[in-house]
Amino acid sequence: xxxxxxxxxxxxxxxxxxxxxxxxxxQTFTDIxxxxxxxxxxxxxxxxxxxxxxxxxxxxxxxxxxxxxTIFGITPTGTIVLEFGGFDxxxxxxxxGGVTLATDGTxxxxxxxxxxxADSSGVIYTITTGGNNxxxxxxxxGGDGSFPIAPPIEGADGNFYGTTNGLLHGLPxxxxxxxxxxxxxxxxxxxxxxxxxxxxxxxxxxxxxxxxANAGGPNKFGSIFRLSTSGVLRYSYNSPGGAGGTYPIGPxxxxxDGNFYGTxxxxxxxxxxxxFKMTPGGVFSIVYNFTxxxxxxxxxxxxxxxxxxxxxxxxxxLGGANDAGxxxxxxxxxxxxxxxxxxxxxxxxxxLVQHTNGKFYGVTATGGADxxxxxxxxxxxxxxxxxxxxxxGRPGQNEQILGQGLNGTTNVTFxxxxxxxxxxxxxYVTALIPNGASSGPVxxxxxxxxxxxxxxxRVSR
Length: 461
Prior knowledge:
By secondary structure, the protein is mostly beta strands. It has 1 helix and 39 strands. The strands form 10 sheets. Strands 22, 23, 24, 25 and 26 form a 5-stranded antiparallel β-sheet that branches. The radius of gyration is 21 Å and the shape is globular. The termini are far apart.
């Protein structure tokens, strides 16, 4: 069975130190932060989140038996600005999945555990970016789900949606909704005990929730699903195995063509996993096959990230020049580029994030100076851009915009329609969605140039 080798590649920590990064003409890889041990060690499935202040935030799950985990914040160059280690079993333990920036300016996350026994199995929390206000919002008690790993996402309706993962504990996995106004949690969908929900959901422009189960289903190889925010299952595509692929992983990403893209960790024509496309209606196709043991990417271990150049970026646990994992790029037309080969096993398990400075950032489970994992950057020469905290809204609402050099903002447009705006800092502005705006890119003009959103903004009426 293939799944154990994927788990081993992603989650088993290597005993070797990760060597110093190498540089090619086209891109630069840099180790910007080394985790040091105890609670500040062993990140899990962590995709970093950019906050209003331009810094990046994430979590470490903690070295086994030595700590309970840490929420951290760093500048884009790796200087630590937050190291919150105040977890205990009352307010959570082992934040394994990273965090999400909310429209209230705080970051939301989950802990996998919250008690010494199995009756209290994780929490949802929020914390300010300065770390001075940590609040437990909900404690899972089994009936509404157990052992959440991925952070919840904030939907267009202002509610939060997430997954719990009971796979390793003999419990059902669930999809839940958390309503901050009433502080209530509802289980929207109950999945079987053999279904693994490790990853965050994605909300499509149609308002529905899209995600992957990387285990379980009729064929035992995982599935891709679409769910309404009220819990109605629109469809579930079950991975068939073999050339049809096994174990979809990572959050899905929706591109401007309306389709969702993701990765299968194994199988395919080359027996090394593949990049796939799923239409909102559930039509599945393979975009690019990775080939086992060909010196390129093998066993993709993360979901994909849409770059500002319109291409898809990801990582693998194996393959590359040293068979220790890669960073790679794939176009929607199936053109593959190897960007970086890790010199020794790094255990990359979570999708990259592109900061608005143009660089990509990622987290490894091993490697770094102390072999407890590291944060790295990958510079492929992409120029700065802006990011939207929410990619849809109604005229008259405020849209939150992240970037850099924003103190010099002179104009903001929504698909060409000018908007009133307020400058809050050099990395954060808000703009009033104008009447007459239509769906399309948001453009911020500054004294030094223009910055365009990677995702189109969708005007809802």
